[in-house]
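Limitations

Structures in this collection are predictions, not experimental determinations, and the ligand pose is part of the prediction. Treat each record accordingly. The example that follows, with 4'-deoxy-4'-aminopyridoxal-5'-phosphate as the small molecule, is included so readers can see exactly what is and is not provided: the inputs are given verbatim, and the output is the predicted complex.
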Amino acid sequence: MNNNKGIYLDYAATTPVDKNVMKEMIPYFSEKFGNAMSVHNFGQEAQQAIDTARERVAKFFNCSPSEIIFTSGATESNNLTVKGVVKSFYSVSRKKGEIPHIVTTVFEHHCVLDACHAMKKEGLAEITFLPVGRDGIVKIADVKKAIKPNTILISIMYVNNEIGTVQPIAEIGKLIQKLRSNNQGIHYPLLHTDATQSVNYFDCNVKKIGVDLLSFSGHKIYGPKGVGVLFAKRGTPIRRIQDGGDQEYKLRAGTHNVTGIVGLGKAVDMLTASGKQQAIIKKIISLRDYLIKRVLTEIPAAYLNGSKEKRSPNNANFRFDNVEGEGLILSLDLEGIATSTGSACSSGALEPSHVLLALGLKHEQAHGSLRITIGKYTTKAELDRTVKVLKETVQRLRKISGNVLSEFK
Ligand code: PMP
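Predicted complex:
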């Protein structure tokens, strides 16, 4: 995508709304503006649009429409999962003095990590943060080892948002099915996956991957911002964490974002056109591999962070010796190329990325990293220009840092 603002290579941060998605959304801003909870005609029109979106999303995930909860995005879905499952534990099956246990990984998105930290700080849960290997993948044996009799929830992301590595969710799903114990009629531990970065590219059939809960955001799949989904399997013990109206099966209070929900439904529906989507994925993989090959062969001391094979089609995360990632993205931005050093939410802070540190990288290596994420509008010409500018910029920044270092010798 190369409009007058330049080359956009930050598709993991967000994507533009697809024209076809936009077209379906427009009438719901002002012409069909009803509140879906109203009984009159205006309200019913909005309700029908939500029903259609819910059916489309349910079809994609191979679940029942009543298992789809619309939220404001993955942040809310993840908070609802962690806090809502803990809340339900206390309301349903609390034995005196029993503290529930949650297993997650050190490199989840901050919305999962911080929700877990909050539960721990309030004394409501104990948390195990699993390590990941140098390849950016969690080991199934570590998951198995971490499970205790009081484990109620395992939350492991499907695709990491910074390095794009793919976690073995279906295998973890199988393991958990075997290990489940019946706690007062409830089957714990539950399995949740943050699928925000995987819906575009990986199998999200919830029955196949064996999850009880799954979250994602509309704006990562060419849909609008401010709307997301939580899939919650029927019978999953979860309580709402926000008080108010009875929307979304009483799990998520607040007037529906009808326009957003309609857009999300259409964006998901477009992914279901499997022939078309497969062709898009194939093109993105070949562009990613082209980029990785050129960067690793043409730029000295350049490395790929995370597994090359178990990697999202759209993600290339590089590390360059003796280069500051922040300097790199600013220089690229001046040349009209939009990239990122890590997740958009944590960039701006000069702390090294928790994801890169989790791989075992040193602080200076984590600081020398750059995330390039491509999407369905990316072209080879854009990548050619990016490689050219990247080569020149890395060389220039190394020269500057070399000069600075030699002055201090
Ligand atoms: N989880 C992952 C893996 C993400 O990539 C993001 C967005 N960067 C989120 C959660 C949060 O999504 P949102 O900001 O749309 O709520």
